[in-house]
Specification:
- Helix 1 packs antiparallel against helix 4.
- The protein has eight helices and three strands, in the order H-H-H-H-H-E-E-E-H-H-H.
- The longest helix is centred in the middle third of the chain and has 26 residues.
Length: about 200
Amino acid sequence: LVGAYHKLQNGDLYGGRFWVSPDMIAGSVKISGLQNTVFEELQMLNKTMSGQSNRIVHATWEVSYQAIAIVNKVLDFLPNVEDSEMTEEVAKRIEGEAKFVRALLFFEMTRLFSYNVSGEGPLAVPVFTEVLSPFDQPPRASVEEAYDQIVQDLEDAADLLEGINTNGRATDVAAMAILSRVNFYRQDWPAVIEAADRKSVV
């Protein structure tokens, strides 16, 4: 699980790109002057978060799915751990944190990579909770399917982490805060308020 948290700090995720890419795509940030001819990959983000030749796009996708793969392996292996230190509370904490990280990444990926594809409608990203082999190629989920999994993971995380001291990691309050934001993107206004009120997020 530490490995998944470490991935979140990567420069292509919360260590940098996750803060910049959405604004570039939305056109809120533009590069001008001399830099306009230098940072071609960033310029491409002013149009869309697509293009396999764009290193930024490729790295964000790759590192995100590396972290998701770690989480899925943790959750798959967790029930089989036989160790005196793996108490029920520790197992609940690990499961809750893992589901929080997975939901967070699927949410960010859905925001960045979900767009209308001619003839297919809005699609999100591949969403899966099982351990995959290197040869598996899961299809892209619909936006609604992606959000359903994100919501389920966040609700599970909030329940599992309730009253547990995670020492600076994911918490039940953080899960509800993200859930409130997810529901904002879904334009489910009553659910936005419900999630924010549940843990006194706001």
